[in-house]
Amino acid sequence: MSQPSLSQAVQALERDLGSELFHRIGRRAVLTEAGSALIEPAREAVRSLETARASVAAVHELREGRLDVASMPSQAVEPLTTLVSDKEVVSHALGRQRFVLVAPADGPFADRTAVECRELAGQRLIVGQPGTGMRANVDALREQGIEFTVAAETEHRVSLMPLVLAGVGLAVVTDSWRDVARRLGARVLDIEPETTLDIALVSRRGSLSPAAAAFVTAATSAADS
After folding, report:
1. Structure letter (DSSP) for residue 110
2. Which residues does residue 95 pair with via DSSP β-bridges, in sequence order?
3. Which overall architecture, per CATH, does domain 89-198 show?
């Protein structure tokens, strides 16, 4: 769009809204308070238009589409979250993962396949940051009177296995890490009594784009199989 056409379009929008959207300072344009307030509704309008176009195109066949996936940080490998707001989003249960203990091959609990949570007393643990499922699980141990030493706190999941294999400490993670940990040479022990993390896919309520709807269907079907 040429500069004159853009200026005319902005001026027409300002007349329609009855408010200036930009402070014009020389050659610069800075958003006014009204302009800032318009940003998110404008983005929503554009998203709605894109969804409408995709829905019309999907009458014939879903060939392509844009899908935005957001997830809370957790030790779960999948980009999922258990955070739910019933007013704005809907949750699709995808399964449940138990917490397990990852230890180096020559570390504690040799030749064991399971460990009682009380046996973690006195051990050195690698923990995640507050707010993660991994951290919440080990914090619950302390609430039960099980004292341990925090050997390291990390926000980077990729650093967990190198720290464990280097003998820095043990890590409590979800069962989704089992195959990866074993391939790297670590041992994985079930923690008793069993504690779990519920995994869910959360989407916006109301109509979804064809791509998002297809993704939800594929994800829930895979969870049921």
Report:
1. T
2. 199
3. 3-Layer(aba) Sandwich (3.40)
| Residue that the structure tokens 């269907």 belong to | 217
Cβ neighbours of 172 (radius 10 Å): 24
Mean pLDDT of 141-158: 89
| 190-201 b/e (C-beta count within 10 Å ≥ 16 → b) | ebeeeeebebbb
Instruction: Give the residue among 113, 149, 111, 156 at the shortest CA–CA distance from 132.
Output: 156
The correct CATH number of 3-57 out of 3.30.505.50, 3.40.1390.30, 3.40.50.300, 1.10.10.10 is 1.10.10.10
Question: pLDDT tens, 45-60?
Answer: 888 888 888 777 776 6
